[in-house]
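Supplementary Methods. Inverse-folding protocol.

Structures were first reduced to a discrete structure-token string of length 416. This string, shown here, constituted the complete conditioning input.
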């Protein structure tokens, strides 16, 4: 159980006022504002270091080199490519992350949805930057670096240790796998703050459960004429399954959805052949764990029925299907009155913004909250649009507010 599970939220506003009245904190906030141009320069630089999901190596190496110069301990690249470093707290002599006991984590994901060769340059149009990935999530990485520099330059050491973490495998088929791996390896952390997207007034505190499945239909293959009715067709089995899948009735509340997101089989050259395999990609989500499991069971039955029907057509077991779960994100939910949500909302108000609370948005924080740990997702500052597209843009106006907000939240959580 985290220390924040039972922590009284009544004194948050008073604690924040006391923090903001301190001269060292005021100097740090001013430092974050005046160094925002350097943060934006780094944001642009990192955007040009492309990092498709499962191929984050170059960006990870760049961050590893940067972080070794920010005064952190135990700067490490782990077995799957996550990069992390420790800012030791006053309450411990530990200089390694270990199991994460007593640590507050702040993290941002490294990967983008774009393949290599997509990002050519960062275009500047006044206060607006344009490039694929300029916001999601290069902004979060630049924020982490700005915070590290601030703690070092302003000589601020919190009571609890802070782990700075850049994760791999957040997007798409990555399925939040980078943070999942870190939490598996360091299960005793106290809380985790995820930084994703721009908006400094947003606090995400929950999200739907997500299942990504890859269905592998396999058969014997054969001649389209000679073996018709003799050899089962994996494509036909997949189509029979899809016919059932698209007819599934799903509840509107709690919101539950299902999509077939990819279908691959055969070749143009093999138009006269029965394919030996077919592949189907599925994505389904629900805000309720019971509904998510019921949907998974219904999908399984539909797939089994499709295979059974195709095999019945040829009179023997010719086609098989293997189900590969490529992502399994738990339903994550917590109260708006939880300590992290309340403290972050107070921070946002103190910066002159109105907090926007969202309990139904999938982010890396879903992996934290879903396993019962205190967690939230916040924005890195600025505004953005057309994320995950070639036209992605980032408005730098007052973007320093996101870094200041993250800094104040860390001080509240880590103690000062």
């Amino acid at each position: 159980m985290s220390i924040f599970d039972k922590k009284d939220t009544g004194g948050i506003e008073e604690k924040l006022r006391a923090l903001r009245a301190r001269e060292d904190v005021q100097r740090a906030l001013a430092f974050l504002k005046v160094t925002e141009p350097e943060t934006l320069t780094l944001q642009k630089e990192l955007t040009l270091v492309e990092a498709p999901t499962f191929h984050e190596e170059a960006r990870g190496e760049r961050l590893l080199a940067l972080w070794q110069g920010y005064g952190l301990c135990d700067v490490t690249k782990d077995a799957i490519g996550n990069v992390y470093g420790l800012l030791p707290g006053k309450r411990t002599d530990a200089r390694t992350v270990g199991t994460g006991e007593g640590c507050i984590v702040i993290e941002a994901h490294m990967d983008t949805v774009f393949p290599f060769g997509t990002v050519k340059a960062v275009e500047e149009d006044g206060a607006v930057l344009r490039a694929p990935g300029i916001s999601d999530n290069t902004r979060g990485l630049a924020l982490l670096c700005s915070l590290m520099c601030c703690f070092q330059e302003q000589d601020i050491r919190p009571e609890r240790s802070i782990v700075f973490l850049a994760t791999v495998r957040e997007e798409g088929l990555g399925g939040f796998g980078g943070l999942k791996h870190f939490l598996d390896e360091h299960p005793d952390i106290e809380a985790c703050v995820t930084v994703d997207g721009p908006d400094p007034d947003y606090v995400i505190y929950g999200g739907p459960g997500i299942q990504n499945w890859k269905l592998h239909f396999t058969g014997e293959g054969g001649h389209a004429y000679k073996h018709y009715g003799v050899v089962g067709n994996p494509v036909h089995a997949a189509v029979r399954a899809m016919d059932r899948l698209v007819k599934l009735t799903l509840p509107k509340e709690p919101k539950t959805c299902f999509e077939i997101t990819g279908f691959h089989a055969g070749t143009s050259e093999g138009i006269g052949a029965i394919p030996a395999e077919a592949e189907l990609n599925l994505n389904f989500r629900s805000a309720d764990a019971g509904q998510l499991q019921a949907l998974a069971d219904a999908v399984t039955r539909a797939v089994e029925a499709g295979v059974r029907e195709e095999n019945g057509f040829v009179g023997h077991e010719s086609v098989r299907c293997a189900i590969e779960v490529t992502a399994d994100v738990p339903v994550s939910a917590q109260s708006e009155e939880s300590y992290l949500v309340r403290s972050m909302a107070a921070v946002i108000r103190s910066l002159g913004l109105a907090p926007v609370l969202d309990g139904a948005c999938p982010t890396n924080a879903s992996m934290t909250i879903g396993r019962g740990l205190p967690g939230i997702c916040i924005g890195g500052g600025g505004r953005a649009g057309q994320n995950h597209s070639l036209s992605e843009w980032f408005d730098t106006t007052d973007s320093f507010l996101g870094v200041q907000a993250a800094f104040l939240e860390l001080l509240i959580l880590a103690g000062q």
